[in-house]
Every structure is written in C-alpha cells, then in structure tokens.
Design a protein that fits this description.
CATH architecture of the domain at 63-234: 3-Layer(aba) Sandwich
Distance between the termini: 35 Å
Bound molecules: iron/sulfur cluster
Helix content: 25-40%
CATH class of the domain at 63-234: Alpha Beta
Shape: globular
Strand content: 5-15%
Number of helices: 11
C-alpha cells in the first residue's frame, strides 16, 4: 500500500503537513494502487470527491511542483495538464516532473495569432505532448447554425460550444486534470483548493498555482527563461479569445462590459 501523498525530504511542507499526511494516509489507504483502475473503482461512488477534498486539505502549503508530483504519483497517465497559452509555467513544471507530459490546449478558433504562435513555440521548446482540442463546429459552421458572431448575443452559449463541451470531451479519458488558475485572480477564484472536485466534468481538479500571485508567476518565468504570450507585454493582463479580450489589468479585459467573468470551465 503506497502513501498517497508524498513530498521531497527536507521541504518545509513535509514537516508542517506531517499530521495531515498521516490522517490522509489513513483515510485514503483503501485506494487502489493501479491508477488506471480508478475510474472503474469509483464509478457511482463518492470516492473521487472524497479523495479530492482530503488531498486538497493535506496539500495546503505544498509547492506547485509538489502538488503536480502528487498528481502524477496518484493518477499516472490518467492525469493531464491544461493551459491557456498565456504563460507556460504549468506545462514547464509538468515536463520537469514527467517528460512528455500531456498538455491540453483549447483551440477555440477565435484565438489571437500571438496565442497560436505561443502554442507552437511551447510545443517545440518544452518536452510535452500538446493536445489541441477543437470544438465540433468551425467558426463558419457555428455562424451558419447560430448566426454570425454568437459571442455578441449569447457569450455563455458560445463559451459552452467552444470551450466547456470540447474540454469535457477531451478530459473524458482522464481521472484528474490541472489548471493554472490562482486565488488572487478574481473574487470568484478566492476559495479554490489545491485539489478539489470538479462536478461539471466528474473529475479531480488540481490547481497547483492556487496560492501563487502574478509576481510568483513572473519570477518563475524569469528564473527559468520561459517564453510568454507577447500580448502580456502589450497591455493584456489575461488572454482569451480575441473578440472577447481587451487590454487591462488582471482579468479586467475579459468580456468587458458584459458582466461575464468566467467561461464556464472553472465554474
Ligand atoms: S470567449 Fe468569446 S469567442 Fe471565446 S468561446 Fe467564449 S464567447 Fe466565444
């Protein structure tokens, strides 16, 4: 029986979390060691939500790399990382821990050229397997079905068709996925856990950067000489689809003036 939560020896988190680790080891000790069997094991049960809640509490205070390492140890090939191609911190960390890491990128058909260029550059410079996930319909097909520029009339439906449903299909083979969202980004993200249950997709969701700030991200990018989306140095604080993204601090420029703050994949 393996300990479900492991950290590098000598980290401050190891000592601080030792009691939680013992508790979690005890409560999660029934977990199957073969992560490929996890879905079968937990179908129609609350096993994974239980795991997510306990792991989230036990890992609080751990570094992003420790959280990612835990996820690979726990879920193996059934764990995948997602990126928006703003910075490539998460893909880089994943590749350091698991060379050839699978990384999902939602190619909505509405991205800035700079974002697509960043995806190409990340794919060719970091040891990852980039999985480009596309909606069922092209933009032209969506225009023909729903009318031109659905995002102007019903951005929630547009996001559902081009982000939420494609991501759900892409994540179907996995048990857990990671996103780069941070508590400091918005009011609605203040309460996210390092590990939590994603009821929308029926998966464990890992947020390794939850406790980080933009300064932490910038430092990691500088320390590791990573490339970033050039729009970040052109006044864009956050980068989504071109029609719905303006310049601004943080996420101010996303869906400006509509009251919409999330696309639905982190809701
Ligand atoms: S961000 Fe805008 S263009 Fe992109 S999927 Fe959502 S509504 Fe559509």
């Amino acid at each position: 029986m393996s300990l479900p939560l492991t950290f590098s020896a000598g980290t401050s988190a190891t000592h601080a979390l030792s009691e939680d680790l013992m508790t979690s080891a005890l409560e999660l000790s029934y977990l199957h060691d073969d992560s490929s069997a996890l879905h079968d094991l937990y179908d129609a049960s609350d096993g994974l939500p239980h795991l997510a809640a306990h792991a989230g509490a036990a890992l609080e205070g751990a570094t992003p790399q420790e959280v990612i390492r835990w996820a690979y140890d726990r879920f193996g090939e059934r764990f995948v990382v997602a990126t928006s191609m703003a910075e490539c911190v998460l893909p880089h960390m994943a590749a350091q821990i698991r060379p050839g890491a699978k990384v999902v990128f939602l190619d909505t058909g509405y991205h800035f050229a700079e974002t697509l260029g960043t995806a190409d550059a990340v794919e060719s410079t970091i040891d990852i397997q980039l999985l480009r996930v596309r909606p069922e319909q092209t933009v032209a097909e969506q225009d023909a079905t729903y009318g031109k520029d659905l995002w102007t009339r019903d951005p929630d439906l547009c996001c559902r068709l081009r982000k939420v449903l494609p991501l759900r299909r892409a994540l179907a083979p996995y048990v857990a996925w990671a996103s780069g969202i941070m508590r400091a980004e918005t009011e609605s993200r203040k309460g996210i856990g390092l590990v939590e249950w994603d009821a929308t997709n029926g998966l464990v969701k890992v947020n390794p950067l939850a406790a980080w700030t933009q300064d932490d991200v910038d430092k990691y990018v500088a320390d590791n000489g990573l490339l970033s989306n050039p729009l970040l140095s052109d006044g864009y604080g956050s980068i989504g689809c071109a029609p719905c993204t303006r310049r601004g601090n943080g996420r101010q420029g996303r869906w400006t003036g509509t009251g919409k703050v999330e696309c639905g994949i982190h809701a």
